[in-house]
Amino acid sequence: MNKFSYVIKNTILNMRRTPLLVFATIIAVLVSSFLVFTTLSARSIVQNNTVRWQNGTHVVIFLDDRVTTTAHKQLQQSLETYPEIRTVEYFTKSEAEEEFKILFKDQPELLSEVDYEKLPSSLRVNLNDPSDYELIIERMDGNPAVKEIRTSGEAIERLLSLTNTLVISASTFALLIGFAAFILIINTLRLAAYSKKKEIKIMRLVGASSTYIRLPFIFEAVFESLIGTSIAVGLGWGIIEYSKNSIVAESIFDITISDSYLIYLTLVLLLSSIIFGLFASFVGIRKVLND
Amino acid sequence: MIKLDNVSLVFQGGSVALSNISTTINEGEFVYLVGHSGSGKSSFLKLLYKEYISTKGSIEVAGLDVVQLPRWKTPLLRRKLGIVTQEPQLLEKRNTYENIAFALEVMGTSNDEIESKTNTLLDLVELNENAFKYPDQLSGGEQTRVSIARSLANNPVVLLCDEPTGNLDPELSIQIVSLLEKINRAGTTVVMATHDSSIVNRRKKRVIELANGKIARDESEGSYILR
């Protein structure tokens, strides 16, 4: 019997001794890895969407129609001189009406009730740096041609803030479950090591190396960790593929995430799970084997 | 083969197990290590296979400096030794054959070699007929013989036996000692710790007596009677 087959045989034997614990460990690793995978993917999707939105209109300045069109044009010209502003587009009342009809084409009742005369003309501003929207609000303050100002920056900031909160919450939760998985692996290995205490003692007496004695335990920890993570990553990929064709994707978000990012995330998670297994096995059997 | 120079062993808490031990055991010798319980016999043996680390002095076993040997190299030392403990330490779920083969398995020996060596060892300890019996189906003497066979699996140059006859009646003890002498005649150095005076008196071999962690006597073959 060569050394490798001995190690594999004993890894399987160890796992068969405590099947429920092994199952619980794999589930804990799975949940933890799944949370990490999905939250990081979700953050990437939100970032992709916000970047897309940020490339559009950042500030809409609704104009007071009691003021002359000339005053509107003067305001546009003065805005165009600001270094923070990339473009300013004048949107007339009729253009606003057309846009409204396109946006709410599925709601004929609403379209029939709206008084289009009340739709104001506006200036659509695109900024070099979307975070400068507050500067524009400040400068427009008190201008008689301005009726109201709305910015996408606030919405984007709120969305990013919400996403970050979600990522932090999910990561904390993943960390807690990851820690539970860590404890489970340690316990599984210790139980296996204690049940093989005599065997280990004999191995040490006949001169088997410490690494060789440890290998079945290391393999077990890495295997459990890798299986849990692999299933989690598989589920994550499946959910993303499903979401791409879902109602959510059609209505709010564009579920776009690059394959290269997903592959990168998968590799990082798999590598992390190997390191996680190695570390757990090191901690789990260190004391038992030193006794 | 074995050389101890001014070796002391003090446990944490200050209790002295061995104090200034100096002795040499040559290749091919058979040495009885005698003394009362707590005299330091087991500690002496454990120092030789680096289960304990001496507080002072130098120890050389089979050409290796045991004290200076890094911990990770301890397996290299143990591969040169056969170690037999008072409790045979057999694996209950393995039969006689498998218990002996285990020592070869864990060293990565090929299946063919395991089979041939295990059969040779079963012959040597005269347990062929019990090859497929489990430990609980064997007598105390037979279990000890399995333990000895297992310790010989990797061709050790030194066999260290810590009271292998401690749990056996006189007749079985003599059988075990005869077996160890047979192994010794084949060239293996044997150091056997025992407090069984009848064995020591009858076998007329070199005896090292320990008392309170010191060598009380070291007498050559046949000249020593245990009190």
Q: Which key phrases capture this entry?
A:
heterodimer, A: alpha+beta, Alpha-Beta Plaits, four-stranded antiparallel sheet, B: 227 residues, alpha/beta, six-stranded mixed sheet, 7 helices, 32% helix, globular
In words, what does this structure look like?
- The complex is a heterodimer of chains A (291) and B (227).
- Chain A has 291 residues and is an alpha+beta fold.
- Helix content of chain A is 74%, strand content 8%.
- Chain A has a four-stranded antiparallel β-sheet with strand order 2-3-1-4.
- The two termini of chain A are 28 Å apart.
- The radius of gyration of chain B is 17 Å and the shape is globular.
- Chain B has 227 residues and is of the alpha/beta class.
- In chain B, helix 5 runs parallel beside helix 6.
- In chain B, the strands form two sheets. A six-stranded mixed β-sheet of chain B has the order 6-7-8-3-9-10, with helices on both faces. Chain B has a four-stranded antiparallel β-sheet with strand order 2-1-4-5, covered by helices on one side.
- The A-B interface holds A 1-3, 6, 198-199, 201-210, 212 and B 49, 72, 75-81, 83, 85, 89, 91, 102-103, 105-111, 114, 150-151, 153-154.
Q: Give the helix level of chain B as a range of percent.
A: 25-40%
Biggest interface and which pair forms it?
A: A-B, 17 and 27 residues
| Rg over CA atoms of chain A | 30 Å
What summary fits the major beta sheet of chain B? 6 strands, mixed
In total, the number of domains of chain A comes to 2
> How many β-strand runs of chain A?
4
Structural class of chain A: alpha+beta
What's the total helix number of chain B? 7
Count of runs of 4 or more consecutive helical residues of chain A: 11
The overall pLDDT of chain A, averaged over residues, is: 84
| Estimated share of beta-strand residues of chain A | 5-15%
The topology string of helices and strands of chain A comes to: HHEHEHHEHEHHHHH
Rounded mean pLDDT of chain B is 89
- What's the story with the biggest beta sheet of chain A? 4 strands, antiparallel
Query: How do the strands of the widest beta sheet of chain B line up side by side?
Result: 6-7-8-3-9-10
